[in-house]
Amino acid sequence: MLAITNDGPSGTGKPESIFISWLLWQPRGADLAVEALKEVQKLSRYEKVDPDIARLKALFASLAGSDRLVH
After folding, report:
1. Origin, by domain of life (predicted)?
2. Pair 56, 22: CB distance under 8 Å
3. How much is the CA Rg of the chain, to the nearest whole Å?
4. 50 φ, ψ to 5°?
5. Could you tell me the CA-to-CA distances from 44 to 21, 24, 30 in Å, in that order?
6. Where does residue 5 rank: exposed (0-12), middle (13-18), buried (19+ CB within 10 A)?
7. For the chain, how long is the longest CA-to-CA vector?
8. What is the pLDDT along the chain (71 residues), one digit of tens a residue?
9. pTM higher than 0.85 for the full model?
10. What span, in angstroms and rounded, lies between the C-alpha atoms of 64 and 37?
């Protein structure tokens, strides 16, 4: 039997793809920093579950203008 372990980030680029898709779907004139902060808050409860989620959260935090770790 083959055992597959996922000890680190998947390296698939999925967080970046999700982030770019999110950016493209924002309405014209949207305050991207405010909307990104909303996404950071949504993702905060899942950060410890998957390193890709932590990476996605970091991308949104960067857009929101947060240089510090957001909880």
Report:
1. Bacteria
2. no
3. 14
4. -150, 135
5. 20, 22, 22
6. exposed
7. 53
8. 334 444 455 556 699 999 999 999 999 999 999 999 999 999 988 867 789 998 999 999 999 997 554 44
9. no
10. 5
